[in-house]
Amino acid sequence: MLKTEDIQIRDPFIVPVESAGTYYMYGSTDKNIWGKGTGFDVYVSRDLEMWEGPFPVFRPPGDFFADNNFWAPEVYSYQGRYYMFATFRRRDNQLLGTAVLAADSMMGPFHPHSDGPVTPSDWSSLDGSLHIDEEGQPWMVFCHEWQQITDGQVCAVRLSDDLKQAQGDPVLLFSASEAPWTTPLASDKVLVGDNYVTDGPYLFKGEDGRLFMLWASFIHRSYALGIAVSASGKVTGPWMNEPEPLYSNDGGHGMLFRTFEGKLMLTIHTPNKTPLERPIFIEVEESNGKLRVTGS
């Protein structure tokens, strides 16, 4: 068994299964996630404090389209199977893209489902997240990477019902610099141009039906997590960014889930530095159409 503070992981994603009293934690689990990708693991817990694992859930086949940068797996139950949305760096053009994997069990093994990335082949894209709209149509919300376009974007694209391919062109939801709280990416000593980062979008429907988005960027050299709200309640927005980040203490790429006791919980990784990153869990309150951190 491992304590939460002993697990090196980035981009933690929790799937609670109440019938089994079990939490499954996926994430970027390679020791050096900036290099060669070996696959993804899962950890299993009953209390979010002690964990069993890691258990391998994906290892790439020999003809897989990528061998570097295996990032940010998110797992969803959909039409009787489990689908993993994860980011990989393509072999053919060295661009990032989000692909879909599938399995019959949350413990895997997951196998390629889409024919490579479902993001545009000439875009550097990452952190795809599944959203099912009010009509039952699957969408993927993802980032168009700042390293390709300077001002990172959050976009959405319709998916086919089988989740194997995109349908139509992506829709721009907003750019990173539009949020009041973001600042340009900077190193410890110098400003790196006017580059604005978008990372890890995750959609969450509030108790009153309001559609929230968590997404990460930087504020004064610190990794941070912001909130946007859809004015229409639809994935296509328009999206309004809150003036202040939800969390700004060098942590981000978050998602929300409810514990078996009904608490709304945020998980992020912090600090944003390999190999020190760890998952943490913070209680969040939803009140009057706002989300705020109440835990430490």
UniProtKB/TrEMBL annotation:
Keywords: Glycosidase, Hydrolase. CDD domains: GH43_Bt1873-like (cd08981). Pathway: Glycan metabolism; L-arabinan degradation. GO terms for molecular function: hydrolase activity. Belongs to the glycosyl hydrolase 43 family. This is Glycoside hydrolase family 43 protein. It comes from Paenibacillus sepulcri.
